[in-house]
Amino acid sequence: MATDRDTVLEAAVGVLSRRPTAHLDEIARAAGISRATLHRLFPGRDALIREVGLRGLQRFAAALDTAATEQGDAQAALRRLVDAAVPDAMLCAFLAGENQLYDHADINDLWEVQIDRLHALFLRGQREGVFRIELSAAWMSEAFFDLVAGIGWAIQDGRLAPRDAAFSLAELFLGGALRRPEAPAPVATPDATTHSTSDRKPETDTP
Question: Cβ–Cβ contacts within 10 Å for residue 62, how many?
Answer without folding.
Answer: 13
